[in-house]
Write a structure and sequence with these properties.
The protein is mostly helical. It is built from 7 helices and no strands.
Length: 177
């Protein structure tokens, strides 16, 4: 499989997402009070990692394009694209609020992970705007791939650090002596 982002940075980001998922599962096992939070983070990281290389949004875009052409509304697609971005922003905001509330109830590490997830949600919105070609009003540097990559990589690394710290700050269970 070549992948949708076959660059070394794309593969490293995908690997970091899968590592973040494993670390989040470790954190869940060590923190019963925040187990649901960390398992949601683990699932999110797996899904983002898979999408990083499977490029599911391109399949969705191609399907929508075919549908628009077949149904005769392709010329008016900009309205649909803006509507999709508004719905995506709303769903992302609701998901961010839910994860944010869960993170605040936890400790410092869950709040840190919440910040990482927020950065990833911003990346998702950023990519949707750029892919939908709705970025005409944005400055050139914001439209560049550098900003998107920075949001994505920083978000993943923050989640990794938070999950690692969460697991390492849990009290150790006494073993057999």
């Amino acid at each position: 499989m070549i992948g949708a982002d076959p660059t070394w940075l794309g593969w490293m980001t995908c690997a970091a997402m899968l590592i973040a998922s494993v670390l989040a599962v470790r954190a869940a096992l060590g923190a019963p009070a925040q187990r649901r939070f960390w398992l949601i983070i683990a699932l999110l990281m797996v899904l983002l990692g898979l999408n990083k290389q499977l490029d599911l949004q391109t399949t969705m875009i191609e399907y929508a394009k075919s549908l628009a052409q077949a149904q005769g509304w392709y010329e008016d697609r900009a309205v649909v694209q803006r509507g999709f971005l508004i719905v995506l922003a709303g769903v992302t905001m609701i998901a961010g609020i839910v994860i944010g509330r869960m993170a605040v109830r936890g400790g410092h590490n869950t709040r840190l992970a919440g910040i990482g997830v927020l950065l990833l949600f911003l990346f998702i919105l950023f990519r949707a705007v750029v892919i939908g070609r709705q970025d005409d009003g944005l400055p050139g540097i914001v439209r560049s791939d550098v900003v998107g990559r920075a949001l994505e990589i920083t978000g993943v690394l923050v989640v990794c650090i938070a999950a690692w710290r969460s697991r390492s700050t849990q009290p150790r269970k006494a073993g057999f002596e």
